[in-house]
What does this fold into?
Amino acid sequence: MRHGSAFAACLAGVALLATVAVRAQSFVGVGPVRNFVLPTEPRGEPAPVPASVSGLPTPAPRSEIIASDTLRRLPATLRGFRFNGEWAQTEWPVYLTSGQARQPARFQLAFLSAISVMPEGSRLTLAINDKVVAQTELAPPDSVATRIFEIPAGLLNAGFNAVKITVEQRHRVDCSPAATYELWTALDPALSGLLLAGNPSRLGPETPADIAAIAPRGDGATPIRLLLAGKLTPESAGRAIRAAQIATLAGRMQHPAIEFVTTGRADPGLELAIGTVEELSGQANLADLGPVTGPRYGFLPARPERAATFVITGTSAADLDEALRRWDSERTSAAALTGSSAGLRALSTLPGFVASGASERIVFSQTGFASTEFSGRLMRLRLDVALPGDFLPADYDRMTLSLAGSHGRDLSRDAHVLVEVNGRNAATQMLAPGAASSLERNQIFLPLSLMQPGQNRIDVLAQVPKPADEACTSPSAGETRLQLLDRSELVLPRQARTGRSPELSLLAAGGYPFSREGARPILFVPAPDRASMAAAATLTARLAVAAGKPIDFTFTMTPPATDAGEVLLVAAAPALDPAWIRGAGLDPERIRTSWQPTQTERRAPLSEADALARRCALPPARLATPVGTETKPAAASGYTVLGLRASLPALPFWQPAEPPGAGSEAEIVTGRAALVVGQDFASGKDFASSKAEHLWTLVTAADAGTLLAGVECLTHPEIWSGLSGRISALASDETLRFVPAGERQRFVTTQGYDVANARLVAAGWFSLNPLAYVGIALALVLCLAASTLLLVLNTGRRQE
It folds into this structure.
């Protein structure tokens, strides 16, 4: 009888487990989130924080979820949509028109947490314009959870608003600092954002400044559809590409996605209609254009059956050019930006805190950080800093990090603060293990050589474990292990300013060489199919964001002369001439063998955690392996400092440390590369002359479809800043590797002559070539010794 009861109990237990089974999920998830699909089956929701306790609104039930066509999604940013560790925070600027700001609004959040997260000990906080709107516990990790919060009337402003989400997470079973790396919560960008009441077609943009109100698509990118009337010509294509750049800058977009269309659609995004009034008159969705007698631009009245449509028109091609000029002039000379102070701060730090290149202080409060008390074991605070595009990374000076705050008592002996710069350890400072102590008496020095032109990521990791953590008791609500104040600061010294070519990091940071004064940029698309043109337009729009201004490309479908100017070549590999590939510093045979028709990688069905880690829709890798070998490039040498060839050659016994992600062309240009970017000086029939003055930059992929997918992935804010060296390859797993420029690189002048800057550049060169510095110092010492010896021998009276 007992055995029968035990057997029945086991059966009941198995049945119970089957009813509450959750999907298999990895403890470790990396990368930002891709689109989710909400499950159709009902499931239990964790209890929200009681309103009587928190004083905040409680989330609405699942049955009140509003259709996605009223959703104002969040844009893609440097930090993505993922929150890692025990404490993480991200802020977005969101633009609303005056009509949208007046409407009742709610905020919808769709998120998924790792299975290692303890829901009842973790929480998510939503703040809008620096006012906390709601808090909620995290949900069990069986599927995507949805919360909807009411936004108080009058909190939203016309213009830019700041949306800040802070996530605090605790581990279910492990209280060690190492276990905090298993904690993550990811937002679904397709289902998270502002829910606006009213008819969306009546709340659309009205003025050119309202382009910033265009809602992103589900992955955070902002679509711009170029509606061209008539036949595509080099002139009309160049005009359309310039219009896309101006629209991207006017909308403050970090991830534009451009495409060419022949008819309008009602899909989310912005439609740019470009053409003379005669050419546009045949478009059915442009019936509200009205009489046109000269240059004209602006939004058409909103209609439910069409997307927001911005028209650039006139009676002639000259009118179109004048309309573009006036539009760009209005964009740059417009009155001060509108919005809340928090929204304007979030907008200014969207690409990171923009440094001027001079000595300056970055106070944490300027980046949106508010003073925080932390009760976990490992706190990670991220700072994003954007340095000038011609910044020279070298050890001619140092940065200073000054933390304000204090830590609690009874910390373990291994408690410390670790600072990482662009993923590399920069400095460590131990914390006192005994009594509580202030952090303000210590400064942490960081090397400038770990920084790079453009976006930089600085992570401050405070590890504050206690001996009691071995028992893994949940921290009490009043236990504060670390207090970090918003008056903490990072001090930047004056930076050396000089260009380096070829160097793709300068392309990503400031659009160099196409954005420099006096440049003659040429966009060369030899096979202008729809996918290749969309890739070229998307790339030029992202370069305009990096440069901070439209870049006046001359569009061509025929090969330009090597001395015509700086060339950006965008084409699939089958459309490339081998000489063009060599001109960009790549091996044509390696390109051919890497992407030749062959078997592709078989991808197993992704687990939920793996699916969240994917940022892009890249095709699978090709399994062909190119033949041939190549040695790694020599250390950087042969520079041209301020236009003059340096006289010190590379020393063969000196090899500097290879940066992470570096490799040879044979290692990175393989079938696993979805997109390849190469840059080099080109001249002559075979592009082999060393006296070339103009750079050729090639962007290519196996076919036109992969080219478009690769460019859209490359221009993602989280990936774009990874461009470096003379060759960069984006692999099918979304990683970027590069080939250092080595001896092909030159220094080029980007600033007017300045004694202080010249001194910094010289100091930077010596820090990059330490043996040359030692050799010159020894030579000077020998000269001093010889001159002293001669002086002593020839001074005084000789004895007979």
